[in-house]
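Before relying on records like the one below, remember that each one covers exactly one chain. Contacts with other chains, cofactors or solvent are not represented anywhere in the record.
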Amino acid sequence: MAATADFSGVQVRRGLAMLLMVISSVGISFGGLIVRSMDGADPWQINFYRAISLGVVVTIILFYRYRAQTVRCVLDIGKPGLVGGAFLSVAGISFLQALEHTTVANTLFVLSAIPFFTAALAWVFLRETLRRATLVTMIFAAIGIGVMVAEGVSAGSAYGNVMALITALGFSAFAVIVRANRQIDMLPSLLVSSVLILAMATVMRWGDLGITLKDVLLCILWGGVLSGIGNAMFIFASRHLVAAELTLFMLLEFALGPIWVWMGVGEVPTRLTILGGCIVILAVAVRSSMELRRGSDRMKRSRPNV
């Protein structure tokens, strides 16, 4: 009976984690539409107000979780947290540069290859083994990205595609740092990222940070509500779901983002963008499904009889 109760408790936590991942991924998928709905704020101005709102929300979450130990929690991230925050800031800055110079679909489809970039970086820096199936799916993902980047060169949006690649590499580098330092709560690294982005945006737009109230509110919605709370949900869910499950739920963000922009502002991706994006997303989905099947088989073999 005890084993049954424990298993039931695990299932409840997993169910809640899956629900939070769906809410988080769907919420964050509106980021592209929010940017396209701005009155006239440029990427640096958006980053400025988004960083402020994200930093405020993360600070509130940290105080809620750690109370008097909040400062200690922030200091405990050490060098890994600082480096991780730096990579996140690069990803955040390049993400808006990508949206400025190419379509939302191009940007998000390239980002959907983050699991493969992460696997490659983990292989190089953490000596993690790359399975043959992972290598094969990485090749297909590279083909899909190649289709979109090649089209970007001919369409004059090569810079945007390169920025999307840098964004993906920045997020993947952060993921590898988190994986190498599982004993550290890396949530404060979002504060590091916010401070760095805020400093860069201030330098780049000194004396020119005035934007409309609508744009300010959209930045708060994106940075504080969708990104801040969404990241908190992701961190909770990551403790109860395996990597393949997290990857599958994250695909909601990359698949839905272009749809919201198409429905909201009529930004229609080209056929080659759709083709390349479908190749990448299909590669991620197939690989994640294979991992889930392997994990399910292991659980069935190890589950005790009660």
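The two ends are 7 Å apart (CA to CA).
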